[in-house]
Every structure is written in C-alpha cells, then in structure tokens.
Amino acid sequence: MSQTAEIVLDRAAAQDVAPEPAMPPRAPLAMPVQDLRTASPPARRGGGGPLAARLFVFGGALLLTVYGAWQMYEVISVSGGATWLQYVLLVLFVLNFSWIALAFTGALVGFASLLRAGPAAPIPTSLSTRTAIVMPVYNEGSARVFAGLQAMHESVAATGLGAHFDWFVLSDSTQADAWVAEERAFRQLRAELGPDARLYYRHREKNHHRKAGNIAGFVTGWGGAYDHMLVLDADSLLTGDCIVRLTAAMEADPDVGIVQSLPLIINRNTLFARLQQFAARIYGPVIATGLSVWSGRDGNYWGHNAIIRMRAFAEAAGLPDLKGRPPFGGHILSHDFVEAALIRRAGWGVTMLPRLEGSYEESPPSLIDLAVRDRRWAQGNLQHARVIGAAGLAPASRQHFATGIAGYVASPLWLAQLVIGLIIVLQTAWVRPEYFSAEFGLYPVWPRFDPVRALQLFALTMGILLAPKFLGLILALLDGRVRQASGGAGRLTASFLIEILLSALIAPIAMVVQSGSVFQILAGRDTGWNPQRRDDGSIPLSDIIRRHRWHTVLGIVTGIGAFAIATSLFLWMSPTILGLVLAIPLSWASGQLALGLALKRRGLLVTPEEETPPAIATRACALAARDAALGFDDADALAALHADPDLARDHAAMLPEGRSRPRGQIDPDHTLARAKIVEAETLTEAQGWLSPRERFALLHDRALLDQLTRLNPV
Fold first, then answer.
1. CA–CA distance, 279 with 235 (Å, rounded to integer)
2. Against a cut of 0.85, is the pTM above it?
3. Cys bridge to 384: 229, 401, 406, 600, which one at CB 3.0-4.6 A?
4. What is the pLDDT of residue 537?
5. Quick check: 443 pLDDT over 60?
6. pLDDT at position 446, please?
7. What angle do CA 130, 133, 136 make, to 5 degrees?
8. What is the spatial distance between Cα 657 and Cα 466, in angstroms, rounded to a whole number?
9. Average pLDDT of 500-509?
10. Is the dihedral of CA 126, 127, 131, 137 positive or negative?
11. Is 22 in contact with 262 (CB distance < 8 Å)?
12. From residue 653, how far is each of 11, 23, 187, 639 by CA, in Å?
C-alpha cells in the first residue's frame, strides 16, 4: 500500500470513521405495481405539446415520406410495372425513409427554436424542498464514482443551498472487491466531508430488477423523507448550479413529475469517444431541442441526470413484470421510458430543459464497448413492444416507444433493403427475362430502374439524413463562443467532415452488429446486464479480430459479388463495402487513445468543454487521480477487511439485520464459504480456496467475517 493510503487510513481510524449509521432512519413510501391493461383517469393534465410544432414535425415527415415513396415507385416502375421483389424494396425504403424524415423535421424545429432562444434564467437563490441525490452503482471503479460525487457535493455546497440535499450511493455490486472498495471510499469521503455532509451508502444483497429495483427499493424505504430525487449514473457529473436549477424548476411547477436535463459528453479521449463527444456537443442540442418543443409536457426520461417528484414516482412508476421469459418477458429492462410514460399517464408532466448547462456524462471508449451496451439497450427497446399498447398512455409516450423500437429495427431493415437490392440487380444481370408470363404482354417481365430518378432520390435521402448535422454545424458557426472554443470556423468545419467520414465508415459495421442483436433477441436470447467499461483503454487485437472477422468476410464477399455484377453497383455500394472490409482496423482505431489525442493536439474534434474545462470536471479528475493512488480498486476485499478491523466492523454494521433463509433452503455458496473459512488457517489459504461467489456470500455473514479477521496473515 502507498504511503498516502496509509496516512489516510490512519487518519480515518483515529477519527473513528462512520460513527453514525450508513443510512438515515427509514421513511417508507408505498409504491404500488401499475397495471398496464387498465388506467384510472389522471388527476391532472397541464397540456401536452404545442399543436403547431407537432403538426409540422409529423405532418412534414408524412409529406416527405409520401413524396419519397412516390419517387421510389417511379424509379422501379420505369417499364410500366414492378415485380414483387421491387415492391418489397419499395416497402423497405418507405419504412427507412420515414424514420429519417421524422428526425429531419424534428431537427428543423429544434434549429428554429435555438436560433431565437434568449438568455438563460438567473440562478435561484433559495429553495423550499428536500431532495435526495441518488447514484446507483454496479461493479464500478470506486475512485471515479466517489471523486465525481465529492466534486458535485462541493459544487452544491458552494451555492449556499447544500442543506436542501442528501446524497445516497445505492450499490448493486455483485463483486466482493468492488463492494469493499466502495465502502472504503465511502468511509474516506464521509470522514473528509465531516459529520454534516449527509452522505449515505446502502448495498443490496440481491440486485432484484437491477437499476429499476435499486431505485424502487430506495423509494419504498426512504422516499417519504424527500420531495424529489435527482437520479445519477455512475459517470454523471452535474454542477451545483445545474442541480439547483433543476430543483427550482421542479418547485416552480407543482404538476411536473420529471424534469430531464441534456447531458453533454466530456472527458473522452479515444478516437471513437471523441467522435461521440463532438457529435453530441454540435448536433445533440438541435435534436434534443426539437424533441423538447414538440413533446412539451409529454416528454421522455433517459434514466439519469434528471430530477423526479417522489410522490409522482411512488404513485405511478411501480413497474410490473411482463408475462413470459426474457428477452421479451420478465422485468422491464429499459425502465426509464416506461417510468416516464406511466408518470405521464397519471397526469404528471414530463419535461426537458435542453439548454440547461452543467449536465455531463461519459461514453463508451470504443466501438466494441458501445456494441456491448447497445445489445442491452436493443433488448430493452424491443421489449417496449409489449408496453406500447398499455392502456391510457399519452400518444406522445407511444411515439417515444416507437422511436426507440425503430432505432434498432432500422438496422435489419436497412440490411434487408441492401440484400433485396442486390438480388434485383443480380436478377437483372444474370436471369433470363420471362417472355411468356402467365399474363399476356407484348414485352418480357424483368426488373428495370430509372437511373436518373434513382440518383436524385439518393441525393434527397442523403440530404435529409445529414441535415440535422448541418443544422448543428450552422448553429455552432453562428455562435462565436462555440466557434472559437471549437478551434475556429476552419477547424470546426474540418472536424465536421472527419466526423461524417468516420461515421459513414462505422455505420455499416453498426448496422450488422445491431442486426445481429435484433436477430438474437427475436430468437429468444437474453442479454443479461454486464457492467460498462468506462476507462480509456484499448481492447486486445485478438478480441477485435474475433468480434469482427465475419464482418470483414461479409464485406469482401459483397464487394466481389457487386463488382462481378456491375462496376456501377460496386461504386454505389463502396461506402458499405469499405466499412465492412475495414471493420477490424476501424474497430482497433476506435479505441486508440493516441489517435484521439493526436487529433486533439491539432484542434480537431474539439468541444468548448475541452477548450475551457468546467471547474467541476477538473476537480473530479483531480480527485479521481488522488483516490486511484489510494489503491481502493486494486485491493483484495478479504485482505482489506483482514488488515483493517475498523473497516470490518463498519462493513458488518452496514449489513441488514434479520437475514434469514426459509427452512430447508440451502445456499451452496454460503455453505461452501463457511466450510472453507473454518478449514483455513491463514488468510492466504482463504484467498486461494474461496471462489468469487463464495467471497460474496462470506461478506454477507457477520460470523464468517469475524472468523476471517481471526486468521493468521500467512
């Protein structure tokens, strides 16, 4: 252990850390499970979204889709008719085109709204309510989590309104080392902040229903003591001003149930993460503002960086289990959309403040890390097909579900469109025309296309697809502060072009990956819930090759086939072919820290938050580096408890009382842990004998913990 760590632990022991309970007295709040089949009339409404904006967004998207469908029909019916394969192609095109048309019209509304936006409201100087700030964690690095928590705590205290907020770390960690590391970091932070910090920690033995169950458990246990809760993710970072503004917005509107902020991505340095960071900063506000304008009080919730009225959540957001087994049955995986829809169904407003500054998060460092997270999101969003028809939902809530579902169904639809297009071209090139069909005709029946209209339709599609990005670029260029902080007009435009080029190459890979996820889900394969990797670290090349080898093969085969059919077809499909062929080097490059930092040094893919880092981000990074030096995340849980009697005492004190098991029920992990710890004479033996699951079981038993502390070190 480092000298710094020894000093901190000695100081903690001298001060007798954690003399108070790890959690405040319970204040139960009932949270009934909601019935998706029936709904009571809401107690309040407060309006939905502006009618004019909705007519423009959905009406405009419908008109564009109709026009695109007509143009596509003209492309395929040049010979006076179309084959059944061409009609299938037409249907797939319309489905995909409608998706991008809706994004386009929504972005236009956001662009217009941001152009005429006025100055932000002043920061409130007083509050009258109590808010619980809750951070659910699941096998995260404690140094990063508690550094961010401390930075936020200090920032809120600096506003002079810290007395209105209590802070909770709600652990669902299933790894013994992660659990004990959290407790060590919690004890250190509580000692540093002092007895008036109102910082609390709770670990669940069983992570029932995962994050949704973690939050629900807090609400039913302690929610009655608070007016609101501000929900964070482990990578969330909010300034004190942002937290106060969110709370003031909730106080000012007694009929609102959720107020969602727009988190910007910060602290990212790998190539892929910098692409996401730049895109979220330049394009994200346009899309989010458009969504906020047309949805109004029928908004959505993204699961973090949002404040929720405790009463609204308790009375309306008790999630039921869906009938059947995962992936479509069981507990609701993507709970946030459903919670927002149910709260809105009960009459509470759900709004968003996309222009609120000071809300930040992080993003996956590589393409493979995104794919791991995206697999869970795909299952959660497709599961919403079981919820979208629930009784009493607002139409906009159903639209949010439909948008989430379409976001993942779009990939297999795009893939199917490419496959059907290839088959049609192949049929045209190699299959002999049918001169004597069942229906008499003067000419043979074969598929033909209008090349001029096809090129025009392609240009229209690409224009609509890229328009939200161009609108974001225009706004950034018009905003002098953003323009200069992003490297000036020239570097900002160059960054824009780099993002478009690399995104175009990555898109085919993402299409195939998402299509595979959708097919797995439809085949009944459950994803589980893996912890996210948040650090800037590359993935071994062998893993990258294993994950992308079939993508490369698909690209090579498609390229050879397209070139054999026609050179023009090969050139038309070259972006898709090139992206798949380069899947392995692109995925490798995506996670490279050196490539991202090289672009940063040249002023490319730079955001205003990098040019002038938020003070809270600078503070959090410094605290994370300090905490990492203490080695909490690197220590063995059993060794840490054995070496520190005060830590072992506090760990035992934080275990729930009255842990019992039904008569005749045997926990094999606990049984084996007890047998091994009794047989062991030294700590080294116990460490070698106990499996990860047995270690976790041992940490839940006070008697076994006492036996552990009595072992000889070696």
1. 19
2. yes
3. 401
4. 63
5. no
6. 47
7. 150
8. 57
9. 96
10. negative
11. no
12. 20, 11, 13, 18
